[in-house]
Amino acid sequence: MQRILNNANKSTKGEITIIGLQETHLNDTHTNRLNHQWRLQYVMSPSEGNAKGTLLLYDERNFDSIIMTDRDPGGRWAILIANKNDVTYLFCSVYGPKQRHQEFYARLTENINTLTLAHQVNEIFVQGDLNLNFHKNNLNNVDKRNAATLIKTFIYTNRLATLSNVNTHTWQRRTNTSTLNFIIGPWNTFPNPT
Q1: Per residue in 147-186, is it b (16+ CB within 10 Å) or e — as a string?
Q2: Beta bridge partners of 172
């Protein structure tokens, strides 16, 4: 974790930088260590045992104000709402479940939509390991199909787009690849929104 936080510290200089981590395996007993190694602000959704956990790292000096933070007690999402130059941003780091997708994404999208209305959010950014490729048309079970519909509706309703090469992979380390990691944000932010 020290290497990740060292690199994260280098990247927060200047413009808005939000770093989202998933499957952190961190819980509330790690806050002293995290405070010492990161030294800036974060929103942590703690893990349960040796699984789950999400973390949003940020520098509050990059914003005019921090409006609120929110976290899922089950280690699945961390949210930051902040304002800069009269624009209110919502940032969400997600680590999606391997089952019961529909229930989870109904809860998450409802929570984001509620916060967006309550705080007059202008720009929404969601990133992370969704554990679901919602671009696939041939999802083989009802739970995944319904969850994919929820995500697509959320994206369409909020005028968002995905920044991921969904035709090949969305994450790669050496020869390992995945199509389950996504960055979702305002459609006009990306050069070729999908």
Answers
A1: bbebbeebbeebebbbbbeeeeebeeeeeeeebbbbbbbb
A2: 177
Q: Does residue 127 contact residue 183 with C-beta atoms inside 8 Å?
A: yes
In 3-state terms the chain splits into helix, strand, coil percentages (rounded to 5) of: 30, 30, 35
Question: pTM for the whole thing?
Answer: 0.84
Q: How far apart are CA 121 and CA 160, in angstroms?
A: 13
> CATH for 2-189?
3.60.10.10
CA distance 184 to 161: 6
H or E element in which residue 129 lies: strand 123-129
Length of the chain: 194
Residue reference for tokens 């199909």:
145
Q: Say how far apart CA 5 and CA 11 lie, in whole Å.
A: 10
Q: Give 14's strand partners.
A: none
Over the chain (194 residues), the average pLDDT of each successive run of 10 is 61 69 77 76 80 85 94 91 96 89 93 97 91 71 88 91 64 62 73 50
Beta bridge partners, 19, equal 57
